[in-house]
Amino acid sequence: MTAAKPRYQELKDYIIEKISSGELQPSDRVPSENELVEAKSVSRMTANRALRELTDEGYVERVAGRGTFVSDYRSRSDLLELKSIADEVAARGGRHSSRVVRQSLQHARGEIAKALHVEQGSDVFHLLLVHSEDGAPIQVEDRYVLSSFAPGCLEQDFDRITPSAYLTGVAPFQEAEQVVRASIPNSAIRRQLEMNDGEACLVVMRRTWSDGRPVTFARLHHPGSRYELTGYYTPPGTSRTAPADVVQLENLSQ
C-alpha cells in the first residue's frame, strides 16, 4: 500500500500544479498561510512549511509585508564570465539544444573586418545558430571566427557541441570584451526567437582574444522577456565575503 503524502507535500503539489498549468504566472500572488489554513483545513505549521520549502526550491518568493509570489523563471547569464550557453542551461537544470542556420566560409567585410583587425576580404568562418532551453529559443548566436585560428571549424557538428566549447578547446581565450545593448530585432531574429512585435532584445557583443589578437566576434541576441544577465565580482585573489543569507540582486523586483 502506498503511503499517504504528508499534508505539507500535498500543499506544495497543489501550488506547483497551478504554476505548471499557467494558472499562476510569474509575479502572481500565491495563497497566504492564513488562506491555505482556511481553504485546505491544515495547521499553520503545515502551511508555513509548504511555503518555506517552495521558496527554498525556487518556485516562489516571499516578500516581507507583501506576501508570496511566483518566481520569475527568466533564463540568466553571468555577465562577468564566459560560459558555453549549454553549460549555463545545464547549471539551471534545463535541457539545451541548438539548430545550425549557417556554417560557412566568408570574406570579412566592413565592421567584421574592423572588429577582427584584419584586412578586407580575409577568410573568416560565419556561424549562425539558435540555442534553446527546454525547447524555447533563448539565444541567436551570430559569430565570426578567424579561419587561421580554428581551421577545422567547418567540420564540427555544432548540433552536438557549442561553438564556445569547441573554440575554447582549440585555444583558451586570454582576453574578452563585452558590450550589452537593448535593441528592437529585425524580422529574422524575431522569428528565430519567437518574439512578439515590438519586444526588445538584449544583445551581447563579444570579442575574444588569443595571443594578442582578436580571434572571434559575436553578436548574441536574447529575448528581453525571457533572459537576464547577472554578475558577481571579487578582486583577483580574494574570495566572496557576502553572507549566504543576503538577498541577491536578481531576486529583487524592479
Outline of the structure:
Helices cover 25% and strands 31% of the residues.
Q: Per CATH, which architecture of the largest domain?
A: 3-Layer(aba) Sandwich
The proportion of residues in beta strands is 25-35%
CATH superfamily of the largest domain: Chorismate lyase-like
The helix content is 10-25%
Model description:
Helices cover 25% and strands 31% of the residues. The chain has helices at residues 7-20, 33-40, 44-56, 85-91, 110-116, 163-170, 187-192, and strands at residues 60-63, 67-70, 75-78, 96-107, 123-133, 136-146, 175-183, 201-210, 213-223, 227-230. It folds into 2 domains: 7-70, Arc Repressor Mutant, subunit A; 75-230, 3-Layer(aba) Sandwich (Chorismate lyase), CATH 3.40.1410. The protein has 254 residues and is of the alpha+beta class. β5 and β6 form a beta hairpin.
List the helices and strands and how they pair.
Elements: H1 7-20, H2 33-40, H3 44-56, E1 60-63, E2 67-70, E3 75-78, H4 85-91, E4 96-107, H5 110-116, E5 123-133, E6 136-146, H6 163-170, E7 175-183, H7 187-192, E8 201-210, E9 213-223, E10 227-230
Parallel strand pairs: 3-10
Antiparallel strand pairs: 1-2, 4-5, 5-6, 6-9, 7-8, 8-9
